[in-house]
Design a protein that fits this description.
Layout lengths: L8 H4 L2 H4 L2 H28 L6 H10 L11 H9 L1 H6 L4 H12 L2 E5 L9 E6 L9 H11 L5 E7 L6 E7 L5 E7 L1
Parallel strand pairs: 2-3
Antiparallel strand pairs: 1-2, 4-5
């Protein structure tokens, strides 16, 4: 026997037990259960190998797992993190926690500020980040990913760049019904 796929429990029984119909039936049932379990066990080796998969394999796995916030243009490390955390994010989809896990995986250090922390309107929020890419060339991608994981009734008021020292700040306002407005401020 080379694997659990081809096991035959009837062959494992001593000769005197093979005569009994009950033992034969029980062996057949165990064979069916073992066959079903062996296909699931193969999935475990997939999860163990995520750190060694190619980018193409990661893309296929994300498609199989139906990860709606998966970005094929992201780096390999971000893809691995997204896939590894996909089950728990799926379970908590629509919460601030799920949104933060995904935002951090793609864009690094960030935080969500709820409406009651800045005297905003109910169900509104802001995102504070140190990553300027969110406000520049990756703004549209960021909004698409955020929309896939945030609660549908939640409204993004702003993305704020939090930085110490000299920096170039691009500010954009989002109106889902019209356009993205971008302004550059030099400090």
């Amino acid at each position: 026997m080379s694997s659990t796929d081809s096991m035959n429990f009837l062959e494992l029984l001593p000769a005197f037990m093979r005569i009994d119909e009950t033992n034969t039936a029980l062996s057949g049932a165990v064979d069916e259960i073992t066959e079903r379990l062996s296909s699931r066990i193969r999935l475990l080796t997939t999860w163990d190998q995520i750190d060694h998969m190619s980018v193409a394999e990661l893309d296929l796995l994300a498609e199989e797992l139906h990860i709606s916030w998966y970005d094929k243009d992201a780096g390999a490390d971000a893809k691995r993190t997204i896939i590894k955390e996909s089950d728990i994010v799926h379970a908590k989809l629509g919460t601030n926690w799920a949104a933060m896990q995904v935002i951090r995986a793609y864009f690094g250090e960030s935080r969500i500020v709820d409406w009651f922390d800045y005297n905003g309107k109910p169900h509104h929020f802001r995102i504070e980040t140190v990553n300027q890419e969110i406000l520049q060339e990756k703004a549209a991608r960021f909004l698409k990913i955020l929309d896939a994981v945030k609660r549908k009734s939640a409204v993004l008021d702003a993305v704020e760049l939090v930085r110490d020292g000299d920096c170039c700040i691009n500010v954009f306002l989002v109106n889902y019904e019209t356009e993205i407005i971008t302004t550059e401020i030099r400090i």
